[in-house]
Amino acid sequence: MDLIITLALNGLATGMLIFLLAAGLTLIFGLMDVLNFAHGGLFAWGAYSGVWVYTVTGSFVIGIIGAIVTGLVLGFVTEKFIIQPVYGNHVQQILITLGFMLVLTELLKVVWGPNQLSATAPDYLAGSFSIGDIIVIKYRVFIILIGLFIFTIVQLILNKTRIGLIVRAGVMNKEMVEAFGINIKRVFMYVFMVGSALAALGGILLAPYSGVIYAEMGMEFAILAFIVVVIGGMGSFPGSLFAAILVGLSGSFMTYYVPELSLAVNMILMALVLIFRPQGLFTVKG
Hints:
Elements: H1 2-32, H2 39-57, H3 60-83, H4 90-112, E1 117-118, E2 128-131, E3 134-137, H5 138-160, H6 162-172, H7 174-179, H8 184-210, E4 212-213, H9 217-232, H10 237-257, H11 265-276
Antiparallel strand pairs: 1-4, 2-3
Main location: membrane
Pfam family, one: BPD_transp_2
GO molecular function: transmembrane transporter activity
């Protein structure tokens, strides 16, 4: 039982990191109908910039803020100059954002070099504590709590606030919203920036969790994020949380019990969903 709980906590922590990346994708695709394959690059830039700020200042909190600011700035640049010219054209969105992902990855190597960078958790999040015979790693609990907090806040904003109402109304009928004098393009830009900031937040939180960061990490985690979006349901925010936890748990248990399937299990899950429920496990309410 102790082993199962340990594997579950590890899977939950991994799932929450994937959720932060997938959550941004879900917001951007579900609300704006934009396929942003450069999202993983924003994740990697959040990791690098956050670790750099953390190293310079010695404050992990300031490092997190630095990563979020990086995500907001890159999100603005991406939406303004990369996405706006190709709104409504998925093929062009895929091609141009894939290219931008490669540019972001190479720029990381130019700024910080091609080698891996190490990162450690701050002293107050390092180590572990015991619950009976179970050893619980503090940083994993921290990641799980951050993920749940972000999910709760975004859900409240989307469903209980005026800005959430405007965003959802703009998705259904942009012309109607603009008739009320609301600049829906500006609102969508803010949504894109928030989604990018969530990706960057996931990047900096991953750094002490894995211990190292590298330029290609964005591409690898972007694949997992897209799997999560497909499994959870395109545009479903609760679905992205559920699917990310499912992917994290399956990866954790398979790595221990059936390591030969640890890399394939997520692809198998996605294939099963596409066969039996192609709209995803959760449907988006109109």
